[in-house]
Specification:
With about 270 residues, this protein is of the alpha/beta class. Helix content is about 35%, strand content about 25%. It has a 5-stranded mixed β-barrel. Helix 4 (about 160-175) packs across helix 7 (about 245-270). It is globular. It binds hypoxanthine (HPA).
C-alpha cells in the first residue's frame, strides 16, 4: 500500500494540492459546502491514480482543494461506501491520502436515521462515539503495521477539543446539535423494525452506512477527527414509515445550510 499511496500523493501534489490543513468528507446530499469554498483545483476521482474505481452512480465524486474560513482544505465531494462493493481498505484510502498531503484535522458528515426517540429528523447530531456493525475492519490487512499500530486505541475516537468547539459553535449560531452514538451498518437495505429496536437497545442514537471505517483509519493515523450526522428519518420501530429516498434527500437538503454554517464556524477555530 505504501507505494500506491506515494504515487497518488505525488500526483495530487503535482496538481497543486499543497499543504492542506483540514480534510472534509461530505456525505450523501450534503455537497453544498463546496459552494462556500474558494476552489483552486478539483479533480474527479476517476483521474486520480490508485483511487478506487468510481461506479456509474458515483461519477460525480471529486477531490477539491481550496480555501474555506481562511484555511486550506481538501474536500471529498462524495465518498465510497462498503455497500457499493469496495473493500474497507478502498473506502478509507482517501483518508490516508489526505493525511499524507498534510491535513491536521478531519471533519466528516453523513446522513443517518434517528434511533433515539427524542431526536427529530432534520436536526444535526455530533457523534460522540460509535458502534461498528459492518462486520470488518479497514485495519485487517497484512501490511497494516507498516502504516501505523495494529492495535489502535479507540477509547476516545472523536476529538474532544473539536467536539467541544462544535458544541460552542452550535450555541453561538443557535443551531440544535444533539450528541450521540452512531452505529454503522453495511446496507444498502434499510433496517427492519426488529433491527431498529436492537440498535436502540445496544445504545445507538443514530444509524447509517458510512463514517466508521474512515474514523477508524483516522485513529490509526493519529489524525484528530469529528463527525456530524444529519438525521434524515425517525426510526421508531412502533411507528415505522416505509423508507422514501426522495424524502430523505429533501430532509438532508433542508438541514444542509446549518451543517455548512457549523463547519464554516468550526474551521475558523482550528
Ligand atoms: N438506516 C441506515 N442508514 C440510513 C438511514 C437509516 O434509517 N437513514 C439514512 N441513512
Amino acid at each position: 500500500m505504501k507505494d500506491r499511496l506515494e504515487k497518488t500523493v505525488n500526483y495530487l501534489k503535482n496538481k497543486g494540492f499543497e499543504s492542506p490543513q483540514v480534510g472534509i468528507i461530505l456525505g450523501t446530499g450534503l455537497g453544498k459546502l463546496v459552494e462556500h469554498i474558494d476552489i483552486e483545483i478539483e479533480i474527479s476521482y476517476n483521474h486520480i491514480p490508485h483511487f478506487p474505481t468510481a461506479t456509474v452512480e458515483f461519477h460525480q465524486g471529486k477531490f477539491i482543494y481550496g480555501t474555506l474560513s481562511g484555511k486550506k482544505v481538501v474536500v471529498m465531494q462524495g465518498r465510497f461506501h462498503f455497500y457499493e462493493g469496495y473493500s474497507l481498505q478502498d473506502i478509507t484510502y482517501p483518508v490516508r491520502i489526505m493525511k499524507e498531503l498534510g491535513i491536521e484535522k478531519l471533519l466528516v458528515s453523513n446522513a443517518a436515521g434517528a434511533i433515539n426517540k427524542t431526536f427529530k429528523k432534520g436536526e444535526l447530531m455530533l457523534i460522540d462515539d460509535h458502534i461498528n456493525l459492518q462486520g470488518g475492519s479497514p485495519l485487517a490487512f497484512k501490511g497494516v503495521s507498516k502504516l501505523g499500530e495494529r492495535f489502535v486505541d479507540m477509547s476516545a475516537p472523536y476529538d474532544k477539543d473539536m467536539n467541544t468547539s462544535f458544541l460552542k459553535a452550535a450555541k453561538t449560531l443557535g443551531i440544535t446539535l444533539y450528541e450521540g452514538v452512531y452505529a454503522s451498518v453495511v446496507g444498502p437495505q434499510l433496517e427492519t423494525r426488529a433491527e431498529y429496536r436492537y440498535l436502540g437497545l445496544i445504545g445507538a442514537d443514530a444509524v447509517g452506512m458510512s463514517t466508521v471505517p474512515e474514523v477508524i483509519v483516522a485513529n490509526h493515523l493519529k489524525l484528530p477527527v469529528s463527525a456530524i450526522s444529519v438525521l434524515t428519518d425517525e426510526c421508531d420501530p412502533d411507528h415505522l414509515q416505509p423508507f422514501n429516498v426522495e424524502e430523505i434527500i429533501a430532509t438532508a437538503t433542508r438541514a444542509e445550510p446549518r451543517l455548512v454554517k457549523l463547519f464554516g464556524e468550526l474551521i475558523k477555530t482550528l
